Amino acid sequence: MKIVVLDIAASKTGAVSILKDFAAYLNSSPDDHEWIFVTGVPGLIEETGRIRVILREDVKRSWPARLKFEWFTGTRFLEELNADAVFSLENTLPKTSLKSVLYVHQPLGYQTGKRFSFFKKEERHLAVYQHLISRLIDGSVRRAGKTIVQTEWMRQAVIKKCGVSENRVIKILPELPELSGLYAGDPGTAGWRNDRFFFPAGPILYKNHSLVIEAAILLNKRGIKDFRVTFTLSGEEAGAALTEAAGKTEGNIVWAGSLPRKEVIRRYREETLVFPSYIETFGYPPAEARALGGNVLASDTPFCREVLEGYKCTAWFNPFDAESLASLMEEVIAGRLFSDSAGNVTEPGISGEEKGSSWGRVVKEIVT
């Protein structure tokens, strides 16, 4: 079977990780299929005996070029490859008569907690995705034979918004990266500190770093000053507004920049994860902290509720209310929250998680 994997849009962060993870799975699990990866950036995927790469930088160049491909030229391009199926990893799918499977991992058009504005400079690019590009995604869902999403909340949101039958939208939880061997400490002696907090996230508005800074300022006003919150942003990545706000704290915010993987894992075990993000499809940090037995202060959102379902070392806050988070942080610092849970044993995974490789299940949906 000849299968086209479309991911022209991928060029950074999460989208590239998903693309590379899928290619790595195919290389580690040989099958009899021919895979043709179509990308917009050179060097993302290495060609092997079963994997061929076609570069379409012309489509990646601009949104008009992308739309032209989605609506017109993409159909002919896929026909000329004489493929049997197409698997799109880029949230959208050109019109095609081929068997089609769409992987949707862009949640902006399906969440209802926040509406972004075209009139606010810092929100404009998110508003484009939420109000315009989401329409392309919706249309692609309706065209696709099957749509794969990562969580049940996304599955229900896609079904409701796009009006497709339930059997056409399939939930397949993503796999966590391999964590064994990355933490050298004994699970029973992790050395958890109640005055240390950690938030690993990039410089994206909805990650909500500002809420954590506001909570730190509130704690200072209550006379609580001996604590630290570490962000995996540099001051330059954070930008002027966040660094200026952090300057109003008693030196509680640390701009650590990108950290080695082992350091992130250590902090999951020895500090409290604060996760204020209000838009995610899945939420890897809470899932990883759970798998390592860490303590989590989590935004009260559908994706966090799903990822942390049944996990006792969790407390919830309103991601739009700094007072809500500050109160929980105060409980942690005072030793009244998580005081008996430091160094929890690791958990096998998310409650209700399906067995077997998630990418293996994706491939099965493509070829059957």
Main attributes of the structure:
6-stranded parallel β-sheet; 2 domains; 13 helices; Rossmann fold; alpha/beta; 7-stranded parallel β-sheet; 13 strands; 368 residues; elongated; 38% helix; single chain
What does this structure look like?
Helix 6 packs across helix 12. The mean pLDDT is 91. This protein folds into two domains: 2-173 and 354-367, Glycogen Phosphorylase B (Rossmann fold); 187-333, Rossmann fold (3-Layer(aba) Sandwich), CATH 3.40.50.2000. The protein is built from 13 helices and 13 strands. The strands form two sheets. Strands 3-2-1-4-5-6-7 form a seven-stranded parallel β-sheet, with helices on both faces. The chain has 368 residues and is α/β, with parallel strands linked by helices. Helix content is 38%, strand content 15%. Strand 12 (295-299), helix 11 and strand 13 (314-317) form a beta-alpha-beta unit.
Summary of the model, kept short:
The chain is α/β, with parallel strands linked by helices. The chain is built from 13 helices and 13 strands.
Radius of gyration: 22 Å
Tally of separate helices: 13
How many strands in all?
Answer: 13
The structural domain count equals 2
CATH superfamily of the largest domain: Glycogen Phosphorylase B
